[in-house]
C-alpha cells in the first residue's frame, strides 16, 4: 500500500482550462506556461493542450487539475483530478 501512495505522490499535475468537452468522457485542457525567450529575454506565454479522461463532467471554460496516468487511448495520458472553478454559465452571461 505504501508503494502506491509514493507512486501517486510523484505523478505530474497541471492546472489548465477546458477548451473542448465535445467527446464522451474526454476533455481537451489547455495549459499555459511562461518561458523566457533565449535571445530576446522576453517572457512568452506558451500553451500546450492535453486530452484528459473526465468522469466529473467538466464543461468548456472550467479550470481543472489533471494528473498523469497510464495510457488510456492513443492520445489520452491524463485524468481530471478536480474541477477547480466552474465557468460562468452561458445563459447567465447572455442575460447580464
Q: Quick gist of this model?
A:
Helices cover 15% and strands 48% of the residues. It has 96 residues and is mainly beta.
Please, could you describe this protein's structure?
By secondary structure, the protein is mainly β. It is built from 2 helices and 5 strands. The N and C termini lie far apart (51 Å). β1 and β2 form a beta hairpin. It has a 5-stranded mixed barrel with strand order 1-2-3-5-4.
Fraction in helix: 10-25%
Order of helices and strands: HEEEEEH
Shape: globular
Number of helical regions: 2
Round the Cα radius of gyration to an integer and report it.
16 Å
Major beta sheet, strand line-up: 1-2-3-5-4
> What distance separates the N and C termini?
51 Å
State the fourth-level CATH superfamily.
Answer: Nucleic acid-binding proteins
CATH top-level class: Mainly Beta
Question: Major β-sheet, in short?
Answer: 5 strands, mixed, barrel
Known CATH architecture = Beta Barrel
CATH topology: OB fold (Dihydrolipoamide Acetyltransferase, E2P)
Number of strands: 5
Mean pLDDT metric: 90
Low-pLDDT runs: none
Category from helices, strands and their pairing = mainly beta
Core attributes:
single chain, five-stranded mixed beta barrel, 96 residues, globular, mainly beta, 15% helix, OB fold (Dihydrolipoamide Acetyltransferase, E2P)
Write the layout of secondary structure elements.
Elements: H1 2-9, E1 13-20, E2 26-36, E3 43-53, E4 63-68, E5 76-85, H2 90-95
Parallel strand pairs: 3-5
Antiparallel strand pairs: 1-2, 1-4, 2-3, 4-5
